[in-house]
Amino acid sequence: MSLRILIAPSGFKESLGADEVTECIAAGILRVLPDAKIQKAPLVDGGEGFTKALVAATGGTLHELTVTGPVGQPVRSHFGFLGGTDGKTAVLEMAAAAGLRLVPRHVRDPMVTTTYGVGELIKAALDAGAERLLIGCGDSGTNDGGAGMAQALGVRLLDADGKELGRGGGELAKLERIDMSDRHPRLEQVQIDVACNWHNVLCGAKGVARVFGPQKGASPETVEQMAAALDRYAAIIERDLGLDVGEMPGSGASGGLGTGLHALLGAKLYSRYDIVMQYLEIDSLLQEVDLVITGEGSIDSQTPRGKIPAEVARRAAKFKLPVIALAGTIGKDANLNFEHGIDSFASIVEAPCTLEEAIATAPNLLTNAAERVMRLLLVGQKLNAGSIGTLA
Known about the structure:
Layout: E1 4-7, H1 18-32, E2 37-40, H2 50-58, E3 61-68, E4 74-81, E5 89-93, H3 95-98, H4 116-127, E6 132-136, H5 147-152, E7 156-158, E8 177-179, E9 191-196, H6 208-212, H7 220-241, H8 253-265, E10 268-271, H9 272-276, H10 283-286, E11 291-299, H11 308-317, E12 323-330, E13 344-347, H12 355-360, H13 362-384
Parallel strand pairs: 1-2, 1-11, 5-6, 6-9, 9-10, 11-12, 12-13
Antiparallel strand pairs: 3-4, 4-5, 7-8
Helix pairs in contact: 1-13
């Protein structure tokens, strides 16, 4: 009987999309088990690929445009309209306008990167007649609390002299007042739903600056400056708008964009899988397989906090399925994932190399890693058959 395998990975950040990861893993499996029955379910979590995946899943339409990128330069971006019968729902992802991939490594500074282009995407969707906005948060290259996004939509963030703040999260340290009087009028007429990581909060010891700032190029000193600026932002929001966002679930999503969307645009924040799985259902596929292979760029202590491999493992556990995760790197406290349904994980890297080399050769590395995993499974089958004894 042929082994039935579900491949349900995330993309590998700055390297491969989820669909590319899926195809590479499938190719590696088929080298070893050419008769394997493979089900493919590339997944997105609100980050890069969110828009195109939901547009494709619903038979919708994609619209391209140029917006302001995270470092202030024009970038090509896109939003979409979902197909189906749910009205004019526009879908967009912050990563398409302010993602980490759009911030060149030599200029990564989360004190100055901006979500202004996200606001331009929202404005374009509103001007195209959207009645509902579905926004994905993830893979951000910013830490401005959504301030730039709000400014692009007419929200004025003012300093003590009544002057408009500049762009970037560092500017929030000077925030004195929020003026909503010139906010885009169509925002009053639309429903805004946000798919975000429910575990990420804006402030505190586990606030977004301290947890994710170093990944975006922040030094320890800069991390504390960003944290102080976001504390100031939260305090002014509470004073002027009456909303306590500091440790609200999802408030830290995408460098605090969750806060800006909720407090300044009136959006509702949802655990991202509550949104994503409405369109990319995998539970029915799990009922028809023997093994699940998932993956992401890094398996570490953050994986159980809302990342795709942990979500896949959680769902697979309902069907008592074994789960293997492939990753670009194995990070700190990765063993925590054994407590969350991932039975085994492995790095795809074959020998010491630079990050740039790993990214450039990722397709081959991933395919080879999938092949190695399947060969190990064959060894396990032989052990299970008792051909070389029994392990106690």
